[in-house]
Amino acid sequence: KAENHIDLLTGYAFKSKNYSQDSNHINLCGGLIIMPDGIDWDKCNKWDPEKLQGLERYWLNDGDIVMAMDRPWISSGFKISMIAKNDTPALLVQRTARIRSYSINNLFLYHLYNGPAFERHSKPTETTVPHISPKDIRSFELLTPPIEIQKQFAKRVQAIEAQRNQAETSLAKAEDLFNSLLQR
Predict the structure, then answer these.
(1) Torsion angle in degrees (nearest 10) through CA of 72, 36, 147, 163
(2) pTM summary value
(3) Which segments within the chain are labelled E, that is strand?
């Protein structure tokens, strides 16, 4: 079970009256900005660094997995992402889960949670807002191959992502060139 391999934390209930839009303040990561393809930091609220006392445990680190617990599945997919170094500093907001692994490669773990097995396992409550519980996250049966195989998997995923990013960049350049030729 996942509970034997992860540190799970759900976010803090930051008071919205104290939210800020000051670009020098700290990003707040919540379920509304977590998307299937990343985090929409342009839409995040901010928090004044002067008001951090007692909130240290809610800091997000490079490699943390974040998951929207309310309305977790949308038409474009599951609202889960990994925190990158350039996403920090950031704090975790309520109704959002942060997952850190003790013994499993984080990228491998991310893909386990982002796969169809977790969707089948978790049974979002059918209230007005579908919701995943911490129990769903902790009780998920994880596939745990040897760490070397997990690392190989992660390396291949990173190589594929790099190729995909390169292809997207090439496509954008080709479209720009084509549009430029159309102008002439």
Answers:
(1) 170
(2) 0.82
(3) 6-10, 26-29, 34-35, 38-39, 46-47, 65-68, 73-74, 77-78, 80-82, 90-92, 96-101
